[in-house]
């Protein structure tokens, strides 16, 4: 690959150009315009022109290209380099010139880039360690906003096509919609996670696992903590861990994102079709869900990517097979419950693996890329064969591009040469093939004939092979395969040997006590020992330190106890102390919670179960409990070894007795199986480490040396067998000699009857010949036989008298010998029975020992389980304590994070507040100026005639109809259109509309042109002021909304901080409970427990305390009770005096109350004016008479005036009643007309709804408008008449005669 554009080699003056670039990295690809596709390739970005079939390249100067994105609207390309502190480069197309470089805070790499569909905005996402999502204005090279997402790996990033202020961020297991909040020049990113459906397609509500809404605390298992605390995670790791259980698989997320992409793509095209109609977008710039046309289809093949054309044709890339499926979604194919939608056509593809489809903006070209690294570009009209693959060759001379398949250039050249050779030598090739065919037929015929001849005349198959070189090659390949297989087997054997060594080391070598078993002889009972590992030096040193620490603590406690007993006044006597010590010794098992002290364990080294409060004490207690378990197992192993030795001795004795039994059976010539015990593999575990030849079922492979050695061993075995046969014959010969000795002995006895004396030489010679034994042994009696006389073959009639005597003696001797044999056989049987009885008794006794050992081990297992239960409870307490510490640390880190966010939010809120204050003043000034212009208009044109002034005032207030502008959501906030660019655009449109109104055609007749010009300038100023006020109001509203959002965020942050503080308080309480509420293990006697009632009491709120504490408390309660009784007696005596004083006090209070009431009566005694006048005037009667006369005169005058006024008002009432009657009649007529008009209005409304609104003429609209104005005027007139009528009624009521009451 040559250097890229703009690079210079050594010794050259100009830059080098790209000569050849090839490859596809399976990354993003995009169209930079309607006919050019671009994609990264190594250190380059390739631009492939489909029409001209040329390729251009842009080189990344820093090395390999990282993230990549393109924008077809702006014709720009962005990519990042892969280096420390990477930079984002932005190039224009087709100039391929660099516009700018974006430098952020990324340290290693950017993973995602995305352009907005409109506007100069670019989104980027960096990888480890920042994981920051940033939004840039690449034209001005400004970072607008950024937000961190620790540990979240992104897979996709895209802008909303209708609104650049909405981004869709897809991670491996989550989807998030980010919104860019804009307030003036400030931008903020807010996160809105999308709830993904589960495997069944249902969306379940998100659960907050970091702060669970409810807890299911258990009194035994402790508090219910979050999963992150149990996993031991803190900070960001805990928050990331919490998100994981709520997320779905990446496959489900990909399918869900694909559905979202399809919906967005469909809506985008529908909006582009009806760009002038805004019914799909509401006033906030959001899609209306009710107006969107949604379609859903179940397809016959799973698709990894899909694109849709304008004519409802969809192309999808199939994942299960290399096909591009074509679907036609027409109106006839739509169903309410759609079934599986079949594809119309399947286009075979030469690509493999899941792929991606991309459509050009003009819907003419279709690009397909797959995981095999091949890129194809199809024409969407035909789609018969790929127009071009990624394997292209770019030349500097003519720039021609060679169309290729999935083969490389060398492969194509090789194939071309082969085709030319095939065409040139086609005839020769055909002749050679025919010759080979004939030769093959001849050889097959010869092989068939070879099979028919006798075996001695048959040839081997390899002799028919004409190609010896091929045969040698095949043999060599076979030998290589054999060598390869042998090497593979050797490696597998080596791996098995290594695994064997590991298992042997872990399970055998490191064990100081190997696991073995001992079995009974006659019972199916087996007892195994406890395998023990050799303890390391560190463990022994730790145990030594713990024991020393425990001794020190015990001595310290004893010293403190002695001091307390010396200071105590109620010390126990010696007898009471002895009784207490005996009770303590008897109850030690039950309080310690185990019986390990009875089986070799020293429980005095343990802490008391109620004193385990600190973490160090619990850890030391675990070490001491393990030491006790080790001692208990060691004690049992010693007993087990003794039993094993006993069994070995018993087996040796049984073998000795079995030898005697076999000798007896051999003498008795019986074939009886002798029971002989042996040690099994469980009793001799070292046997498993050696493999016997009998265990190998496969045939053993032997080398030449091993074969020779085996033959030599076979010869030696043959010689040994021959020697054994010789020895056997010698033994038979010895038996014959023994028989001859017996006969000679009998002859000698007979001879001694006649000879009293013999020479000494003859007996000595006999002893030498008989082996020094003149009498035969008992063991040989059963083997002896008396040979019959030689004459026994003759008939008895031919016997002589002497021969008859000899025969009688023979029969007598045979009878005696048989009796001796039978006696000896009975002796042997008795001996056999004694031996078997002895074996049975000894083995049964040993079986009883093993059974007792099994029972003891069962109890020992119970003891070990008791100690292990203590260890498990302590470990669980430590684990729970560690989880609480982890949770507390995590909450503290989370609290610090939230505090920083709160400080940041407070700064944002303060900035927003200052911004609102800054915008409020100009808005008020503009509003005041706008009002002053309206007031100044009348003053300015005060000299104009009244009729012209009215007409000018009407024109002054008239506003032109400006053309409706399209809302550019990528340059303004989706909720407020208040940017300066929009203000200038709206103002320019308004001024253009004013040009028509300022023309002299609209000038009133009789008005001076100079006045009209002044009027036009004033009206323009007024409209500019109104437009300015409107846009400043929008800007102020935007700032106030931003301030309100910041305030809401601050309130939410305060509530979160309060929740964190509450959680920390709860954690401290739980830690205190955990330290005080210790789990204690007790041993309870087994048996029935009788209760007064059937209901079992609840001990969940019970507290376990020591008995001495209760007794001391009872003594203290008794002493306090006596004190209380004494105090009660004193209080009773004292209360009598108090009651008497209270009675006297109450009596005096009642007297005081009576006196106060009398004084109050005197003070409030009433004295009227008549009483005062009666007391002050001398002639009271005369005064009263004069006063009455004056009142009668005034009353007469008032009566006359009242009658006169009543007559006047009655006259007015009659006139008003006539007017009211007339008005009522008029109103009745108007109501009838109103009903008719309502009926006509309803009919016209129905007609209006049924007809098209555009067909209604302007004349009907004007008539309806006049009727509405007329109705409105009549309603106003009725209201004014009702007001006048109400006034007249009130005046009439005020003139009614009133009755005067004179007292």
Automatic annotation (TrEMBL):
Belongs to the CFAP43 family. Transmembrane segments: none annotated. Pfam families: CC_Cfap43. Signal peptide: none annotated. GO terms for cellular component: axoneme. It comes from Hirundo rustica rustica. It is found in: Cytoplasm, Cytoskeleton, Cilium axoneme. This is Cilia- and flagella-associated protein 43. Keywords: Cell projection, Coiled coil, Cytoplasm, Cytoskeleton, Repeat, WD repeat.
